[in-house]
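ok so for the tutorial part 2 we go from a plain amino acid sequence to predicted structure tokens. step 1 is just haveing the sequence, like this:
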Amino acid sequence: MLKVDKIVKYYGNVKAVDELSFEVKDGEIFGLLGENGAGKTTTFRIIMGLLDATSGTVTLDGKKIDYSVTDQIGFVTEERSLLSKMTVKEQLSFYGALKSMSNDAIDQAISCWLKRFEIEDYLNRKIKELSKGNQQKIQFISAVMNHPKLLILDEPFTGLDPINVKMMKDAIYDLKKEGCSIIFSSHQMEHIEEFCEKLVILVKGKPILNGYLADVKKSYRKRNIHIRGKKIDEKAISKIKGVLEVVKHANEYEVKIKDDSVVPLVFEQIKNAQITKFDVMEPTLNEIFIDKVGESYGK
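step 2 — the prediction. this is what the tokens look like for a chain of 299 residues:
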């Protein structure tokens, strides 16, 4: 289990991380969210032992993270960190050696992962000759080829088409089943909703929301009603007290409301129309993120 306990990090007079705490259990995927510059990268570097926190502690299975345990940590960075003139085999062999893997274990891992990601033919290709999507696959393999105890994923699906995203998602779920603790960071909130049970949202290094995703959504009172049908009076709906916005999509309306008490008022307004759909939905994580981050900036 990874435990981050009240870490603070200053760069001069600038506080990059402010009293951040969270835990990631074995076999759990945790979401770390925030705008660019919110403190995510600094947090990652502290977790990996590349930076010292000004105060607070980070432990993996109760032990302070130092060079004796960094082999157990995999990191897929948002930016490419591959050596472009190396071949795929050379690159992965290099990373495997850095993680203290034996030559036999390295060869076996390379063969297994290239086959899984359907890129066996690229073994002797130079990294610079690969597409961005295939480079991302190699970057992912380099982080997980030794089956790490902790895996940090920062925008892992960059450059991947939907088929390859599915392929990598399956690999992440398999690592979770093995008991790997995973920190997942992405600006694509649908991925966070799919993967993460717990999350924290950072603004200027300070956690403004922290907990189980289900509880976060439950505590957020705003709801969306999705309505489909004919003869729907959009203007009449928008005048109902508690209706925040009515958005017309291609074939349905999305009515944003302040809380559940507005639902019967909306239904009363449209009950005589030709309705084929009336669904009350929880807000998306994207909506919560925009609202909470904006709120913290006084927007």
